């Protein structure tokens, strides 16, 4: 897995503080911004956090480049709908010889790993066979409709990808660029940094939070799984390790 913070709102802490303060200020925006010293920004953001006033943090956004993750993770992260996603397309990208993500429980078990890798090799073989069959099928049809051989082959290969991808596994690798505002990110971290989250998206969320804390420490102070801000929110499904989890994220 590779996670990179590609871009984020400049001076995000100050921008959020200004947006919140504007609601209660008579002064114009330039004056308001100029009066916000680092000390005042920190104090105001602390107050916002205590009040639970979250709408101002929507003015700041963060964009991540994410690679080496599975299509299974993609199905989970896109459930966070207040976000923007650009994802590698299996319709237009040839996935012959695709890379795949191996769950830790499988990689640690020789028998499971052998079975898993056998399945990946079979999927890759089926994908290539289907691509070849469908490319030939579409090319012949397009040539009969008047396209040149080179034009027909180019179009046929793309058309073949569209249906051959149906045999690709959830383990198949993908890459994406994701943008979320701070409010959405905080919710994402609350749910996906939790010990009960699936291992891959938990690993992703934890790395994204580490990058966010480095870029805007005030905005992400106290961010993390639900138990970081107080009592565990998972009820009967708690992992029972709240103190350990709080310690981990306080040291991040």
Question: Please, could you describe this protein's structure?
Answer:
Helix content is 52%, strand content 12%. It is α+β, with helices and mostly antiparallel strands. It folds into 2 domains: 164 residues, Gyrase A, domain 2 (2-Layer Sandwich); 64 residues, no CATH class. The protein has a 4-stranded antiparallel β-sheet with strand order 1-2-4-3. It is flat. The relative contact order is 0.16.
Write a brief structural summary.
This protein is of the alpha+beta class and 252 residues long. The chain has helices spanning 12-22, 29-35, 38-51, 71-77, 104-107, 110-144, 149-164, 182-192, 199-215, 242-250, and strands spanning 2-8, 61-70, 84-87, 173-181.
The average pLDDT score comes to 93
Give the biggest beta sheet. Answer: 4 strands, antiparallel
**How many domains in all?**
2
Number of DSSP helices? 10
Count of β-strands: 4
Order of helices and strands: EHHHEHEHHHEHHH
Which overall shape is indicated by the principal axes computed on the Cα atoms?
flat
Give the uncertain stretches in residue-range form.
Answer: none
Q: Nearest-angstrom radius of gyration?
A: 24 Å
Distance between the termini: 19 Å
Kindly report the CATH topology of the largest domain.
Answer: Gyrase A, domain 2
Coarse structural class: alpha+beta
CATH hierarchy class name of the largest domain? Alpha Beta
Proportion of residues in extended strands: 5-15%
User: In which order are the strands of the major sheet placed?
Assistant: 1-2-4-3
Helix content: 40-55%
- Corresponding CATH architecture of the largest domain: 2-Layer Sandwich
């Amino acid at each position: 897995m590779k996670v990179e913070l590609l871009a984020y709102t400049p001076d995000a802490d100050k921008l959020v503080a200004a947006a919140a303060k504007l609601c209660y200020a008579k002064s114009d925006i330039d004056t308001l911004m100029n009066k916000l010293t680092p000390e005042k920004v920190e104090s105001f953001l602390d107050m916002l956090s205590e009040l639970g006033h979250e709408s101002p943090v929507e003015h700041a956004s963060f964009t991540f480049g994410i690679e080496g993750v599975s299509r299974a993770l993609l199905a989970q992260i896109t459930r966070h709908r207040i976000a923007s996603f650009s994802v590698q397309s299996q319709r237009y990208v040839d996935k012959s010889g695709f890379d795949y993500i191996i769950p830790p429980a499988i990689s640690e078990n020789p028998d499971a790993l052998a079975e898993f890798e056998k399945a990946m090799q079979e999927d890759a073989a089926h994908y290539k066979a289907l691509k070849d069959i469908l490319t030939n099928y579409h090319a012949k049809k397009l040539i009969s409709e008047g396209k040149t051989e080179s034009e027909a082959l180019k179009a046929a290969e793309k058309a073949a990808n569209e249906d051959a991808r149906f045999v690709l596994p959830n383990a198949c690798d993908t890459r994406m660029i994701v943008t979320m505002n701070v409010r959405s990110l905080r919710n994402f971290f609350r749910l996906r940094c939790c010990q009960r989250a699936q291992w891959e998206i938990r690993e992703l969320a934890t790395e994204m939070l580490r990058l966010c804390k480095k870029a805007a420490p005030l905005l992400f102070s106290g961010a993390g799984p639900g138990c970081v801000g107080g009592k565990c929110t998972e009820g009967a499904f708690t992992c029972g390790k709240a103190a350990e989890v709080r310690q981990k994220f306080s040291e991040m």
